[in-house]
Amino acid sequence: MVGALDYKGFPADRSKTGGWVPAAFILGIELVERLSTLGIGVNLVTYLVGTMHLPSATSANIVTDFMGTCFLLCLLGGFIADSFLGRYLTILIFSALQALGTGMLAIVSRIPQLHPPPCGHGNHHCEQANGLQMGVLYISLYLIALGTGGLKSSVSGFGTDQFDEKDEKERTQMAHFFSRFFFCISLGSLLAVTVLVYIQDAVGRSWAYAICSLSMIVAIAIFLFGTPRYRFKKSAGSPIVHILQVIMAAMRKRKRNLQLPQESSLLYEDCNGAPRIPHTKQFRFLDHAAIITPEDQEEGLRSRNPWKLCSVTRVEEVKMVVRMLPIWATSIMFWTTYAQMVTFSVEQATTMHRTLFGSFSIPPASLTVFFVGTILITLAVYDRLVNPLYRRFSDSRQPPLSNLQRIGLGLFLSIISMASAALIEAKRLNIAKDLHDEHGPLPMSVFYLVPQFFLVGSGEAFIYTGQLDFFITQSPAGMKTMSTGLFLTTLSLGFFVSSMLVSMVDRITGGSGKGGWLADDINKGRLDCFYWLLSGLSLVNFAVYLWCAAWFKPRPPPQDMEMEVADKGNSNGMER
């Protein structure tokens, strides 16, 4: 197999390496990562409020900051994998960090000195966690976030390395790998919001977190066992560095007031026989990076400094990334609404009637099972029913919805979900107001929250697959890993925007001393107003997205894209 090596550094033998067996070892790591990260994240707010005695808004922000950091660190993990360690070592090191973090969290939740005394039993004032207790908790959480970010950035890439795109059989297997990769994510999510959350509430958090740590250790052992079967591919370098090189080269030559040539053929281009991307007139500023100066001639184009001179193809790759940024920016708002499903929606569930079958009480965080289930149902209906019917009656091989249309549908569903959440919360607050200060769950079924979970879940099914398709198909061939990381940063920034909005709303509405919209006791707040705010912001964002989607010009399929192949004697007559 060309370009692939075995673990000893020799060319990989197709019969002894790669395929489904080593891919399965890699998928096991991803399943356990989802189990741990989501299982901790969805039920963390109840721990912060109920055990650490933190205010509601503060607890929500800690959860969203934690989840956001997990995805933001995917960029760091991808950079380390591409530039230094490679995907195999990155997965190994960062999965060990996650196992360490979950193990430490198990200890934190077990030792009484690492959280404040419980309320009641003579302690009429609930004491908040002190600096030391919160510091140890933060170290645990952000070790997990660091492990998740580094691990998540490389798992899918290393999995696809086990298949040869040039072999028809293995190319088909690679397509199935992505569906099984998503299945493992979904299975891990289901186990997290059902089994793991139940263990946290019914048995103990320390036991649940210890299970996460031990599961990751077992997954690492299985991953190591498969080492002789893996295929390893050399990295071509970090795309982030390539982007910075184009920007720096363009800025240097722009400062020197160098004029762009009238003909694009006078700009620098590599002549190594590789496919080239045709020059475009958009974002002309970046073209300065490809201007050939006398200094470049003296230094020799063959030994060029990429921080001073970049090829047209390299410049066009950066332009392709820039064109994706408006779609990237307008996708963030969806994940801000998503963040409410693991924070305030869980808090709502704690105040409502959750008894089922007489005595079984549904854990509040387990309501997210409707969220995960909706994702699976939506994808199944779309792939197995809508897609085949559309192709049958339209005689088209294209999917019924393009990637931009799927993103737009997800954004639209997020608007409706927040409006639905606001209406349900208004009903819940009216019931709480009628009961005044009575203790115990409100006489309102927790299943009233299902519509908001259903709508956000359906929205995620469309926007997640749409974004993944968009960022992979519209990115340059050499920047697939980075574009996947760019997609994951929309999740990260969505959580951070949620934290920012919560802080702003709490500061503005809580100034009167009445607790504001996001009061510590949500029965005395106005969470419905916050949901209406999110619905309004999502509507504005959706309008901006429609404009950006109309402006964006999709990249044509590879077989239709005009590529130029340079030869040694090109038109400008320069030796390169």
TrEMBL record:
GO terms for cellular component: membrane. The keyword Protein transport does not apply. The chain crosses the membrane at residues 20-50, 62-81, 87-108, 181-200, 206-225, 321-341, 361-382, 403-424, 444-464, 485-505, 530-552. One of its GO terms (molecular function) is transmembrane transporter activity. PROSITE patterns: PTR2_1. One of its GO terms (biological process) is oligopeptide transport. It comes from Amborella trichopoda. This is Major facilitator superfamily (MFS) profile domain-containing protein. It is a multi-pass membrane protein. It holds the Pfam family PTR2.
